[in-house]
Specification:
The protein is α+β, with helices and mostly antiparallel strands. The protein has one domain: Muramoyl-pentapeptide Carboxypeptidase, domain 2. It has three helices and four strands, in the order αββααββ. It has helices at about 5-15, 40-45, 55-65, and strands at about 20-25, 30-35, 70-75, 80-90. A four-stranded antiparallel beta sheet has the order 1-2-4-3. A hairpin with a 4-residue loop joins strand 3 (about 70-75) and strand 4. The longest helix is centred in the middle third of the chain and has 15 residues, at about 55-65. The chain starts with 5 loop residues before the first helix and ends in a 9-residue tail after the last strand.
Length: about 100
């Protein structure tokens, strides 16, 4: 069952201990998100090959269910944060607030 809107996704990431999720940009067929926080920095600096595919997949799945269109998340590593670029195959309706 999908979460209800952007705020629910953000709240879930915090309560699951994934880090602080923020939406930075939203367009018709893409969204740009960032994931920050102590846990993210620890994983980036303490692991040789940190992996954020669980978080990316969860985010893409939630967006896919909310907009009823295929979605895929790309992971980008930044200095002390992770960026997720979520791309949708179809024109996406706005996520519910």
């Amino acid at each position: 069952m999908p979460l209800k809107g952007i705020n629910a996704i953000i709240d879930f990431f915090a309560s699951a201990g994934f880090g602080t999720l923020d939406i930075e940009q939203q367009k018709e067929t893409s969204q740009k998100w960032s994931l920050t926080g102590d846990i993210v920095e620890t994983r980036l600096f303490d692991q040789d090959t940190p992996d954020f595919y669980l978080e990316a997949g969860f985010l893409a799945q939630q967006i896919e269910q909310q907009i009823d269109a295929s979605a895929e998340a790309e992971v980008e590593f930044d200095k002390n944060k992770i960026n997720f670029n979520v791309l949708t195959a179809d024109s996406a309706k706005d996520l519910m607030e």
